[in-house]
Amino acid sequence: MTCVFFLLLFLGQCSLILCQGYKYYFIKEPKTWEEAQRYCREGYKDLATVPNMTYMKTLYTDSTENQGNAWIELYSISGKENRRWHWSLPGVEFNAEEMKWSGNEPNDKGGHLENCALIDSSGGLLDIGSSHNKTNHYISLTMKKKKWREAQSYCRENHTDLASGAEQLKEAVSTFKSSHKPRSWIGLFRDTWRWSDGSNDSYRHWRDVENFILIKENKKWDEALTYCQRHHHDLVSITNPKEEELVKEKVKNATTPYVWLGLRFSCVFQLWLWVSDRVVCYENWANEDHAGRCGMSVAMETGGEHKWFKKNDSEMFNFICSLR
């Protein structure tokens, strides 16, 4: 089982800890996630879980004076086969038998990971990528096109949440039919994230970071660099695990087996350098000799464990641009 660590904010390879007992305890000892979990289980109850926004506010209150970053209980098991469906509204349990999928859905159409759900006017459900712009829906219909997470944030700020659970879906379909819109978001999503105490809490409060964009055009490394600098900011530099996870999510939808990163071997300095001129501190190389030579750059594999591979600059791949 491969753990992917979640931080409130990124600090480094290790972080401070939030333990859970009768309240949240902020432990000022830098540790890895496994060390933090062991520490909390020995001296408290466990690493902190965050089942809803009330707990999130309490967590912030208990740790405000510390102004630090901390591990919590949430971790990820890699592999699309390990995804689970959840309802966005905390406390609503997902029941597969209550779901009415359209046609052969859910199907990850075209090999792309589709982790959010739409409802059509007949009440049928479809899986789709979260970045698509669809009409936002929560019982009272809102005629605004948003991405899934934007729709979730809108509903949480202005109502309660995206429509979640079988009973709300019935009411949603009735309201939706009168809108004459073909499809709309609901609060159904799937991911690989787990709470290490085994609970099924579906609450997520991800930091809204959209710093990277996947360009599904096949280009040589130099061409990809020019494109990113001309249309966005630069080819992506990955300097910590949080950025790595964000890039991994992007590359899953690529149309090539590898995706260019902004890492190139410098003939002048005889070492790998990011286009941002940063030396490689954080790295995720495949099990191969990564000694470089002139004319080589780095690409991330779009499948498997998303490791880094050195490639000739002349090869043609999709690529990731940073937006700032």
UniProtKB/TrEMBL annotation:
<keyword id="KW-0732">Signal</keyword>
<dbReference type="InterPro" id="IPR001304">
    <property type="entry name" value="C-type_lectin-like"/>
</dbReference>
<dbReference type="Pfam" id="PF00059">
    <property type="entry name" value="Lectin_C"/>
</dbReference>
<feature type="domain" description="C-type lectin">
    <location>
        <begin position="212"/>
        <end position="322"/>
    </location>
</feature>
<feature type="signal peptide">
    <location>
        <begin position="1"/>
        <end position="19"/>
    </location>
</feature>
<dbReference type="InterPro" id="IPR016187">
    <property type="entry name" value="CTDL_fold"/>
</dbReference>
<protein>
    <recommendedName>
        <fullName>C-type lectin domain-containing protein</fullName>
    </recommendedName>
</protein>
<dbReference type="InterPro" id="IPR016186">
    <property type="entry name" value="C-type_lectin-like/link_sf"/>
</dbReference>
<feature type="domain" description="C-type lectin">
    <location>
        <begin position="19"/>
        <end position="123"/>
    </location>
</feature>
<feature type="domain" description="C-type lectin">
    <location>
        <begin position="132"/>
        <end position="206"/>
    </location>
</feature>
